[in-house]
Amino acid sequence: MFKASFNFLFVFTLLLFLTACPKTQQVKNAHHVVAKTAEKASKTASAKQSSSSSSKKSEKSEKWKLVKGEKATDFTLKDLRGRSRSLSDDKGKVILLSFWATWCSPCLKEMPHLQELYNRYKDKGFQLLAINTDSGSSVAQVGPTISRYNYTFTVLLDTEGRIANIFNPKGFNPFTVLIDKKGYIRVTHTGYNAGDEKNLEKHILALLKE
Amino acid sequence: MKRRRSLVFFLVSDISLFFLFVSLFLFFSPSSLLAYRLPIKSTKHRLSINLALTSVMEFHQNNTADNRAAHPLNYSDLQNRLDLNIDYNDYRLGGRIDTFNFFYDEKYHYKCYKDFNCRAQYLPEKLFFKFNSRLLSFEAGDFYITVGRGIALSIRKVDEFGQDTTLRGARASFEEKGFQAVVAAGFSNTSNLDPITEVFYDDPNDFIFTMGAKQRLLDAFDFGVHYVYADLSKQVSSLYLLSHSHIAGLTFDWKRLLNRFDLYIEGDIQERTESKIHSTGYALYLNINAYFYPLTIQLEGQWYDNFLLNADLTAKHAIVTAPPLSYTNAPSMERQDLDTQGNNSNSKGFRLKVDYSLSPMLIFYANYLFRFGFNSPDNDKQIFIHHFYAGGDLHFTDDIHLKVSAGWRDISGLEIWKILHADLELNITIAAKQAIEVVGKYWHNEKKEDIPGTPSHNFHYLDTQLGYSFAKFLNLAFLFSFSDETQRDGLFFAGEATFHLFDYGHLKFTYGRLRGGLRCLSGVCRVFPDFEGFRAELTFKL
After folding, report:
1. Closest by alpha carbon to A117, among A186, A196, A61, A63?
2. Which of B33, B374, B453, B508 could serve as B346's disulfide partner, Cβ 3.0–4.6 Å?
3. Nearest in space to B367 (alpha carbons), one of B383, B340, B386
4. How distant is the Cα of B232 from the closest Cα of chain A, in angstroms?
5. What φ, ψ does residue B278 adopt, rounded to 5°?
């Protein structure tokens, strides 16, 4: 009896959420709402300082409207030169996080395409961070793998899997996360199949234009 | 007479099936979820929720193969896994809940429960709280941790192998201006349900404490020290088996020395006490990578002498191949899929690999490994391994990519095992978003006891896969395997279809018979049982 009641309650709670609009639309709405509110607030503030009630109202709107955030958690990892590198070091850029491992065949298939994207857009506000998830037992292979193919993008080492666990709790490899200029996660993708790089490029171009 | 429980019954009364129901509902729902408007005071604050649901339903048709020791019954099972993370500014709260149900004829209930410990499972597997700031990070609950290259301590996840061990306790770390310090303590917490053999295991609850510090000097190299204490004592029937270990070690890591070399050295000493018997172990590991593009050279060397930090396996039955439970993951220097010796505690040897890149489209490599010294539990005989393999990575055009390799592996000692192996992987892009893949692996094995006059046993493994992918929508694969190692082996046929829907998840179906056997991944090896039947997997994430 208790189980049945709990199950009903669980599903009912979830059904409440199902009335929301599609995800991308939500994010657009969210940014639209925040942007509009901010725009309204700035117009009010610059046009008439004395209109404190309306600016307060705008501030209140800005304060009280939040949507489910996809803000990327900041982290720090070491690169192949042993230097610490944080996600926030590339603030203001479109950032692609690509989780990979030396034993992952689809990861290695995807990498030449990631290199092409990096070459094409690195001077246009795009950054690629390839986060390697090899454990300590196989991390010795990472440097030679990158050198073999002469890749030039930044590789970070996550031997403990802690950062992978934040962005990719299921531990898929490869796993791609695309972050916009404001630090919000906009796209995630699991695996690699031929043609995925074209979709990825579309997303990157769209975010670079924002 | 008890009636067989039906799926409908479970659907309305069982949370496990409700997870599956919810997964399907979310997956096919035209809307996405979790848009909140929360009364939080400032837009500077952020709240986000991440949810990942995986449901796997299997029908096991024939479980009487030799290496399938658990559950020799025709049965179905449903596994669900829910990962939930809530982020608020620099704080994170998260957890994981696993559920598991068996569906079988009631007359097997007692046997299943008594012999294989199979039971419905609805426990929170992981729970954690994290705080991250620029200088400090703190974790309470379940966390992963690795020290050095994993020789002294490595507690992490290898999902594909059912290994997800954490420490349940607390961890604090500090980092600033090239200085890092970590201190952590907790009790080991493994995944209670092994998804490979579908047997339930209790948590080992071994106590582990570690602390370490690392300093970057001259903006060039890192020098580190670490200490690990583990209490592996256990109550077995009326006996209390005392077992604990102290490990102290140093690491030296210089990346891009002279812009050409990576140099890593680690040394560890272990003092171990097991049932009042004291022993000392040593571990020394060296890795040198040299970069002279188009030439890349990789050298690894190891000297492990009586160095051990493995917990006792918690499998209830010797015939069941339990998930690997080890708190270390020392480099074995082996190729991932060809590591046939799991015991590293007395391993010594080296590996040399040379890559030559004629161009990024044409790469050749050769690898030689020599290991010796580890003894089998019942024999003092030394084991020797020689392994040579070579291969190429060839892009004929932008659309055709071929990888080939072949090699010879020779193991002698307690038994003689020679392996001639060959691998092939061919990818052909046939249209803008469509590709065909052909994968083949072949082993010719020759095994015999290392006793003069004993006959050798020759057998073969062949695994092939023909796949088709249509980017972002569909993957199809036909799998064919062959093995003649035992009389029960033979031909294995299976088909797989994976449907992707947007980037929220996938639905995967498998039908047929899959060959089991030894698989190695990320330093973890275990024997997979054969599978025959039907499998459906639904993964959904927000």
Report:
1. A196
2. B374
3. B386
4. 22
5. -95, 145
Q: Which of A174-178, B41-45, B527-531 is the most confident on average?
A: A174-178
Interchain contact A52–B (C-beta under 8 A): no
CB-side exposure of B210: number of CA atoms within 13 Å? 33
Give the minimum alpha-carbon distance from A175 to chain B in angstroms, rounded to a whole number: 11
CB within 8 Å: B37 and A22: no
Dihedral angle, C-alpha B245, B250, B255, B259, nearest 10 °:
-150
Which pLDDT value is given to residue B19?
Answer: 57
Edge-to-edge strands of the sheet including A185-190?
A: A84-86, A76-79, A154-157, A126-132, A94-100, A175-179, A185-190
ipTM: 0.82
What contacts B452, CB < 8 A, 6 or more positions away?
Answer: none
- Contact criterion met (CB < 8 Å) for B523 and A19: no
Model confidence over A53-69: pLDDT tens digits?
444 444 444 343 334 34
Per-residue pLDDT averaged across B426-440, rounded? 88
What pLDDT score does B23 carry? 55
Cα distances (angstroms) measured from residue A115 to each of A94, B312, B475, B522: 15, 45, 25, 25
Q: Which residue among B18, B29, B38 places its CB closest to the CB of A66?
A: B38
- When pLDDT is cut at 50, 70 and 90, the band that residue B157 belongs to is confident
Q: Residue B22 — very low, low, confident or very high, per pLDDT cuts 50/70/90?
A: low
Please name the residues between 106 and 165 in chain A that touch chain B, using a CB distance below 8 Å.
109, 112, 134-141, 143-144, 147-150, 159-162, 165
Per the CB < 8 Å rule, is A69 touching B47?
yes
Q: A120 vs chain B: nearest CA distance in angstroms?
A: 17
